[in-house]
Amino acid sequence: VANMEDATITNSSASGSVTGSMSTGGLVGYANGGSITNSSTSGNVTGTGECTGGLVGSAYEEGSSITNSSASGSVTGNNSTGGLVGYAEGSITNSSASGSVTGNNSTGGLVGFANGSITQSYATGDVEGTTCVGGIAGATIFGEISNSYSLSNVKGDNKVGGLIGGNSATVTNSYSTGNVTSSGTEVGGFVGMQGNDRDVPPEGSISNCYSTADMEFYGNKQAGSITNNYGTKSQPGVEQHEADWFNDGSNLTFLGSAFNTNVIPPDLVDNPRPVPPPPPTTEGIQFQIGANSGEENTLKIDTSFSLNGFDADVTTREKANETIDKVDALISEFSIRRSGYGAVQNRLESVMDSLTTKTNNLSASHSTIVDTDFAAESANLVKAQILQNATAALLAQANSAPSIALRLLE
Length: 410
Fold this sequence. Notes:
Elements: E1 3-5, E2 8-10, E3 13-14, E4 18-20, E5 24-25, E6 28-32, E7 35-37, E8 40-41, E9 45-47, E10 52-53, E11 56-60, E12 65-67, E13 70-71, E14 75-76, E15 81-82, E16 85-88, E17 91-93, E18 96-97, E19 101-102, E20 107-108, E21 111-114, E22 117-119, E23 122-123, E24 127-128, E25 131-134, E26 137-140, E27 144-146, E28 149-150, E29 154-156, E30 158-161, E31 164-167, E32 170-172, E33 175-176, E34 180-182, E35 187-188, E36 191-194, E37 205-207, E38 210-211, E39 215-217, E40 255-258, E41 262-264, E42 285-288, E43 298-301, H1 317-370, H2 374-409
Parallel strand pairs: 1-6, 2-7, 3-8, 4-9, 5-10, 6-11, 7-12, 8-13, 9-14, 10-15, 11-16, 12-17, 13-18, 14-19, 15-20, 16-21, 17-22, 18-23, 19-24, 20-25, 21-26, 22-27, 23-28, 24-29, 25-30, 26-31, 27-32, 28-33, 29-34, 30-35, 31-36, 32-37, 33-38, 34-39, 36-40, 37-41
Antiparallel strand pairs: 42-43
């Protein structure tokens, strides 16, 4: 789909490679509002202009949403390049990207430039860019990121982070584990630059997050620290923040530089290191529906389901309302899974119909080539018998001609 205006796309997929200029996506190029649910792409995407994504090139409008969707192909673009979405203003929930991502400014494993919310999502493909490069998002402004993570190895020049390159959003309960490599400044295992250097909002915040990145630096300057500092002075005039960050001997580098920040170090006594979101699940069933080995010839069904530690508490009005919200969320998750299974069932029935048609056509072709055409052969037999009888009659008549001549002479 090249252009989508307040439309709905559900249970859809694309597997071919896509090449374009501005707003290039594996499924949708430009989405102005609307929603995309239970959809995926597996082809490689290449864009020469702004906004390139594995699923969507650019998703505008705060009301737009992408839910339970994924992209697995590699993505190559210019500015605002992401494994799932190049530029995103709406919400992204329960979604993922696993392909490698290569771009310039604002390059992220999931989203290149995020101006919305990212919830319970992850990225695993390697990411490489120039400025503002991150495992989940290259750059963020406003919005929030929660319960998300990146396993991506990230490489860039300036403003490079394991989760976010340049962050001005609210980030909670998220983490990164990939290696971070840079040849420039403002580099951190989690965020390259927190806040902005214009002394204006948004400033963003980070709480209950961590990084286990294996830091590697190249060049003349090192931004970041390996001595439990969550911020370091990397430019003249930048305040140095000293605080213990997960003071457990792991020597984590968290932030490269901090401008106008509201960074909240967690209390390790009352709030221990957050439990990370679950890794990509491998639970499920995979069907081979084609003759070849590519992903387009397989059909995967995710059979995992969890109550996510559901605990009903109705001791107070507030907790009762929270319990209702949890029940509504589980009902919504159940409905989404049910619709997903229905889509898989429809796909299987379509494949079965297609295979039945192909089998009948193949059998008919084989019969035409190998089996005898009795009608044609019977006609040929009658024709040969007529010719044989006619030939015998002519020979008999020719043989009797001399005797007839002798009788006339007598």
